[in-house]
Amino acid sequence: LVGLGMVPRGEVGLIFASIGLTNGVLDNDQYGALLIVVLLTTVMTPPLLRWRLGKGPTDAVAQADVTAEPEQGWLTVEKGEIRLHGTPPVGLTLPLALRTAVLTKNARPANTLLDWFGTHRDAAVAWDQDCTPLLVKVLRDDNARAWRFLDVSGVLERALPEVAEVMDRRRADLGDLDPLGALRFPVVDRLDDLAHELGLPSDDLLLAALAADVCADSVTATQDAGGCALGLTARLVPAAEAERIAAIVADAHLLRAGVYEPDSFDEREILQLATHLASSAHARDAYELALAMGSLQRWQREALDQRLALVIEALEHPELTGSEANNLAAARRLAAERLVDDAAAVERLRHASNAYLLSHDAAELARQVRLLEPLPRKDAVRVAVTPEPEPDHWKVDVACRDTTALLGRLSAVLREHGLHITSATIATWPDGAVLDSFVVIAAERPSAKDLASEFERHLHGPLPVAPMPDLELAHDNDTLPWHTAVTVTGPDRPGVLAAVAAAFAAADVVVHTARVSTAHGSVADRFAVSDRVGRKLDEATVAVIRAALAGERPARRRRRLLATR
User: Is 0.85 topped by the overall pTM?
Assistant: First the structure.
């Protein structure tokens, strides 16, 4: 009987039903009947309340009775009821609904207040950004009754239809046995749970959590999380703030995507991520939202914590104190410009991609652009070899003009000279200039002159590459902000890198960085790639790469104009 008396509060009804079954007060049939009553009353309450609100006079009739606002205000709480004083104009529907929602934490709406909302059931309600602080207050209170009131009053479906649609879909989900599940926002709740560890979230972060909740059910194949979040927040806050909130949502997804391979990020990719996030404050907001989006295993949380620490360390580097350097890539470029005195080399640096600038320190950038200027003539190659800090490791810089399957041709020559490649970066410019930089292992310093001659001999003509169908290729468009991450694994054998490079060339793919790893007779090579106009790869392009690796003859994709980021 107590359980039945508490039925309007579905959670309590379920609790009492479970206690009754456990203690033998209810048998299985009675327990099942009580569950049905609890669920039906919970599901039926919103439409019945909407019907109740719809029984009042029409908005046109009510407008004739509008009064001035009383001294005590439109709303007061008396004896546990939220009471309406006077007759407000219809234009106050939204702010009064939100104020009522806030007050439902300790009181219930009086009948006269419900009747007033019923008279305006057909009135158009557009979101007013002045009401957003009240919405934030509702989010902070974590009060299901507030959301139920906004739902049954019909204000939510008119002012924030995306939120109302998500609540309707959750309510219709028969797999969710929580009667109040439709009135909760899990990401917002988890953000509140993290407050003891991370501090109270800002208003923008709360709105980002709401957008993440709504967009988790609304993202489609043509709209990503950031686009969905921008559509919602653009009505809640000014445009610039909406873009920042949408970026928090998108970058939280970016951070979460990287925790499943904690060892995959090297320094270049960390710097790329730091440049993309741009500020420590934004990085921390995205990190907190990433934690709130769902539980992580301990090792994943540790990986995310470490990644945030590395990003913030990079963003707070002293190089960024100059007013001209607004990101890490710009800081590297400015430092390199100070090391060269040739106008053409400076101009080359100013048109370099961010990925390239982040892959080398200032001294290396200066040395490489000097090697590239003036641009080598067709079929000419310049090579510079410099020692690396690690013993028997050498950096081989190659400057030339772009040609088909260039990375494959260069790597094949290095292999023929017995040089084991451990990493590579590739930079391209719109005028056809290419700077490929390899780190190789050799007991003695390679001859730059001999390598240049061999590179020139292999610039054109057929590139003999053996099919390697046993190589497995995986791609990920979520972990890097600018590029697609491609991982190639399989048995180690001579010519693996050349075969992969040739497959990329067959798909007209640009390689920005490469990291080569060999252990126990297997390779695990990771590449950051894009198409020729700087976009991430689509499924069709990946299919061409796989076909080329297997030795098939895929239809060659139409070559597009070369572009740099």
Answer: no
